Amino acid sequence: MYSDLLANLNPEQGEAVTLPPVDQNGHAQSALILAGAGSGKTRVLTTRIAWLIQTGQVSPIGVLAVTFTNKAAKEMLIRLGAMLPINTRGMWIGTFHGLCNRLLRAHHKDAGLPSTFQILDTQDQLSAIKRLLKGLKVDDEKYPPKQLQYFIAHAKERGLRVKDIESGDDFQAKMAQLYQAYDEQCQREGVVDFAELLLRSYELLKHSEPIRTHYQERFRHILIDEFQDTNALQYAWLKLLSGHDGSRPSTQRSAVFAVGDDDQSIYAFRGADVENMRLYEKQFHPMMVKLEQNYRSHGHILDTANHLISNNTERLGKNLRTDAGHGEPVRIYEAASDSLEASWLVDEIKALINSGIQRTEIALLYRSNAQSRIIEHALFSAGLPYRVYGGLRFFERAEIKHALAYLRLLENPNDDTSFSRVVNFPTRGIGARSIEALQDAARAQQCSLYLAASSLEGKAGAALGGFVRLIDHMREATRHNTLPETVEFVIQHSGLIQHYLGEREGQDRVENLQELINAATAFIAEEGYGQDAKAATLPGENAPGDVEVSPLASFLSHASLEAGDNQAQAGQDAVQLMTVHSAKGLEFTSVFITGLEEGLFPHENSVNELNGLEEERRLMYVAITRAKERLYLSHTQSRMLHGQVRYNMPSRFLEELPSDSLKWLTPKAKDARWGGRSSGSTWNDGYTRQREYESNDFFDSGSDRPVTRAHSTLSNNVKRMAAPPRDTYPFKIGQNVFHTKFGEGRVTALEGLDTDARAQIHFKRHGIKWLQLSIAKLAAID
Ligand code: ATP
Ligand code: MG
């Protein structure tokens, strides 16, 4: 029967799936599948789980699998369900955070947490830190909250508590002291941040021998996807759980199956360390399988990716080939400005949709979130439905966070972050002074704001008492409700709905609040909570890890853990927008990588360090390899970012691509950086400077080979538009001008109307550039 599972795999994939999980001596045998993008790593990992179960080597409850996103975990469960006649519900497949949350819920007492502990997302964490600094009267200019947040996350990701941090200078010492105070505050309030989830569950396993042994014996197979992006703590966690840290004799360890691609390591800034792959090789002695067949991308796309990444020096080395044929060349487009880039994107997307491509199969990728606004605007104006991954997620919207804060207080009234968020929202006459007095009282009594509320007297005390009674009343009244009923009750009785109904633009927010009831309904259905609202457990299994958690508690964890995941609803046909980071592991028929400019991609913070640049290049490799059939790369000459117009050079990555696989939709200059400091061009060659064109959509050359066109200007080839009357422009062709950044230049072409009007200028020192006249600061100098 299991040959069915292997039927959809090539021989190397089949070999990887069926690697023996024990060696001749009966010792667990770990594995490392090292392979490039689109070679089927995730498919192999999923099939491996199915194969292990089907061949009776493990039962579903003996498997622990780690994915990079919640969405990937869901997909894996669905695939497994399709491969095997088993109920996958309750299997331990999830992200590190999701799995650790589960572990801590099951053993909250041993972990030193209240059963109702809440998870702080990054935003909540920052407000908790700000509150802490204020309470301690710490100068937040000297010790910026964000820096403290980073310090704490950084330490936790390395498994370091305050006592493990070596004392440095005064600043370090103060940060460590604040880290300690922050942890105490979290403990008091019964909340944990993301890094704490991991560290706390690591410490739980480390220090509690019976719990550790239970899970070590239970999880005989541990599988992990995207292994290259694990951090030091996650690696230690794996070592511990599998018994490879020395906590178990070599005959009793679990088999680890890791899949990864060193070329796709893109989370170093969050503490991920590709070095873990080398450590793993040394410490787990895994069997290695390389996969070299790519099933995702057509030839030109794959060649482009391979060519680019060969510029990196720090690589483990591997190849990728495809049987899919060359396919379409990679198209490159240069726009004069970001808004023109966006309108080109819209035109191109419309053409793709007309040719029958589904909107969900089109992805627009960008390096920084800030780039999405202008693209969103263009898509919106063109009436093209789109979805943003990662951006401001549903669960991060203010009104949703308010509603969740009330719900969290029902679960855990000592959660001061939630308490502070809604004590006076909607307003109930509790001013900043009263809150300060309350905070002082709570500090003095070493208790939560909720508990301290009754100690205040006077008007403030009465108002606070009213709030506390409201929370208690909501808790009591919803005790026997289903989760959606509770959500509905809370958004009504907290006054949130009425508040937003009274706001001029509150309709959207009211709809979002109502959507929260739908989200709760969907959650109950997906998680399989029955009428009796009990957590689902696997049949016949009542392991401590499968304890019952209330639907509300699970829903609140779910809301906090959705971080960065796709918020698009299944089946909704919309164009997909996301940062390159969040595109990891995904694939689309058509991909646009936008904003390929120096300073943007590669990011300006990275270009001065070799490691930084290599990480950016891996990021570009990830971006390119998301595309199956069509890949577009675009860049612009000017861009409005962070309130400033920037004139960027084209990204160096464009120069690192194989010219045979490219098709320039706009002209490319002969020299290394077109539009940049041109090698052969002099001031005198003016606008008749020779440019080499390759065939493009505007030349019907009838061949795909490069053709050379001479004496052309961008304006009469790129945009076929009637020349506007000359006096439309403030400058004339041939006129000398001065630009604050590029210095002196001469106008060599003019095109476009109104706000789209732009001039091609040949700058003495900076070569040829197109500038949008409504933005560029140009002055005539003769
Ligand atoms: P990434 O590095 O981007 O995470 P990956 O190595 O995990 O990629 P998968 O996502 O597993 O690759 O596979 C890429 C695509 O190729 C998927 O659409 C998958 O279904 C398909 N695929 C993988 N193996 C095969 C195969 N043997 N036959 C046909 N299609 C395959
Ligand atoms: Mg994958």
UniProtKB/TrEMBL annotation:
Enzyme Commission code(s) on record: 5.6.2.4
Residue ranges constituting the UvrD-like helicase C-terminal domain according to the UniProt record: 299-585
A GO molecular-function annotation: helicase activity
Domain UvrD-like helicase ATP-binding: 14-298
InterPro entries (UniProt xref): DExx_box_DNA_helicase_dom_sf (IPR013986), DNA_helicase_UvrD-like_C (IPR014017), DNA_helicase_UvrD/REP (IPR000212), P-loop_NTPase (IPR027417), UvrD-like_ATP-bd (IPR014016)
Cell inner membrane among keywords: no
Top-level lineage group: Bacteria
Chain positions recorded as ATP binding sites: 35-42
Catalyzed chemical reaction(s): ATP + H2O = ADP + phosphate + H(+); Couples ATP hydrolysis with the unwinding of duplex DNA by translocating in the 3'-5' direction
Family as reported in the entry's similarity comment: Belongs to the helicase family. UvrD subfamily.
Name the record gives this protein: DNA 3'-5' helicase
Native organism: Polynucleobacter paneuropaeus
